[in-house]
Amino acid sequence: MIPLKDDIPSLKRPIFVYFIVIINILIFLYEMSLGVYLRDFILEYGIIPISIIQGERLHTLITGMFLHGNFVHILGNMLYLWVFGDNVEDILGHFWFLIMYILSGLAGSFLHILRNVYSQTPMIGASGAISGVLGAYLVLFPNARILTLIPIGFFLRIALVPAFLFLGIWILLQFLYSSIGVPGVAWSAHIGGFFIGLIIGLFFRKKKRRIDYEVYDI
After folding, report:
1. Which residues in the chain come in under a pLDDT of 50?
2. Closest CA to 217 of 3, 10, 1, 7
């Protein structure tokens, strides 16, 4: 399922959502300019579990959040951040949104590291941090509706999916893929980030404003 838009208008400009998207895109464009040196760049700034366990290269816990491996990787991450991030930043405020984003990214990285202690493969991407945004969104806006592109065989369908269903399916898939060991993605980082965002979101539930939902014609 691919989220396109939710039906909750934001009241404030999501400054940090804009900032994070722009920074990630600029860094990705720089990565693409490196050519044959891209591998060395990722090895230098990606999160390598065994190095972190040994107390080395701790700066990569932050830098790794802003690197992406390919166009599909960054497009997916930025789309999810764009769709879900504005309303979460609306409720948390700019400062706490940024804190939650970083803490979720760190939690996701640490869970991945703990499950891959001896790995020398670098982990990159904003997925752990963005998963935190999804966790917060789930507790803050469970009844929001997500305009979703759903592939059905060779066909595509657009439907409004309740947020609790969309995100519930999403996190269940992360557990499933993690448990069966689908390679190439740090599924445990998604899980760790999601639950940090969910916990932080619970503290802000009382700040929820009355929501005026938009109406979509499909």
Report:
1. 212-213, 215-218
2. 7
What's the predicted TM-score (pTM) here? 0.89
- 10-142+164-207 maps to CATH 3.40.50.720: no
Q: b/e for 152-189, b at 16 or more Cβ within 10 A? A: eeeeeeeebbebeebbeebbeebeebbeeeeeeebbbb
- Residue-wise pLDDT for 16-48, tens only, equals 999 999 999 999 999 999 999 999 999 999 999
CA separation for the pair 183, 87 (Å, rounded): 32
95-120: string of b/e by CB count within 10 Å (b at 16+)?
ebbbebbebbbbbbbbbbbebbeebe
On whether the CB atoms of residues 138 and 62 are closer than 8 A, the answer is: no
Task: Output the pLDDT for position 114.
Answer: 94
Q: In this structure, which long-range contacts are made by residues 153-158, counting pairs with CB atoms below 8 Å and at least 24 apart in sequence? A: 158/4, 158/218
